[in-house]
Amino acid sequence: MTQDIRIKMCGLTQPADVAAAAAAGADYVGFVFFGRSPRNISLRDAAMLSQTTPAAITRVALVVDATDAELDALVQAVPLDMLQLHGTEAPARAAQIRARCGLPVMKAVGIAEAGDLAQIDAYAGAVDQLLIDAKPPKGAARPGGNALAFDWSLIAGRDWALPWMLAGGLTPDNAAEAVQRTGARQLDVSSGIESAPGVKDADLMRAFVRAARG
Ligand SMILES: O=C(O)c1ccccc1N[C@@H]1O[C@H](COP(=O)(O)O)[C@@H](O)[C@H]1O
């Protein structure tokens, strides 16, 4: 039964993206604050997008090794429900950010081989959710949003103490298989619902939700 799969659509940059994500049935929307991303947006644009997001949808800000000053400016300017830490934040730093910002925190963990799973348990008690993503290739311009899937057999049948989402290279074509093979109950998608880097596509959003929920 996949009807209850929760879906995060990340890297939204336009009011039409938020409307399309809501219409498609997204549970979370994500706004990217990372200068080298084609999905990077200003605090001002994020505040506007956030204000147009329906109340039932969780608004997530994606940051990468943000400083305290950057985080303070972010939470002051943009109404948010959650922070996604997509850098090298250690458990202690993640816990500090959660306390400082007063928001639930989701920590992204990059997976390429079985050994990468070892770091996950250390985040219990420090964060609220985990994002199990593909590890970026060496030399990648950004730590995520690379349309790259990892070997799902590495996490098949695994569960963690915290709620978790699967990310990395998800598309309408592989979402159902991802759910079936990993047991994920939450999916996070960005590149897979785009017609070009940073350009979201409403048809792909609908197709993704249909495929993920069956
Ligand atoms: O989307 C980005 O540009 C990005 C930049 C910096 C860190 C993470 C980023 N994206 C996140 O990566 C995962 C997987 O994305 P994809 O579906 O493979 O494109 C997802 O959480 C994105 O939000």
UniProtKB/TrEMBL annotation:
InterPro entries: Aldolase_TIM (IPR013785), PRAI_dom (IPR001240), RibuloseP-bd_barrel (IPR011060), TrpF_fam (IPR044643). Residues 8-210 form the N-(5'phosphoribosyl) anthranilate isomerase (PRAI) domain. It holds the Pfam family PRAI. This is N-(5'-phosphoribosyl)anthranilate isomerase. Signal peptide: none annotated. It is an enzyme of class 5 (isomerase). It comes from the Bacteria. Its EC number is 5.3.1.24. Coiled coil: none annotated. Keywords: Amino-acid biosynthesis, Aromatic amino acid biosynthesis, Isomerase, Tryptophan biosynthesis. Belongs to the TrpF family. It catalyses: N-(5-phospho-beta-D-ribosyl)anthranilate = 1-(2-carboxyphenylamino)-1-deoxy-D-ribulose 5-phosphate. Pathway: Amino-acid biosynthesis; L-tryptophan biosynthesis; L-tryptophan from chorismate: step 3/5. It comes from Pelagivirga sediminicola. GO terms for molecular function: phosphoribosylanthranilate isomerase activity. One of its GO terms (biological process) is L-tryptophan biosynthetic process. The keyword Cell membrane does not apply.
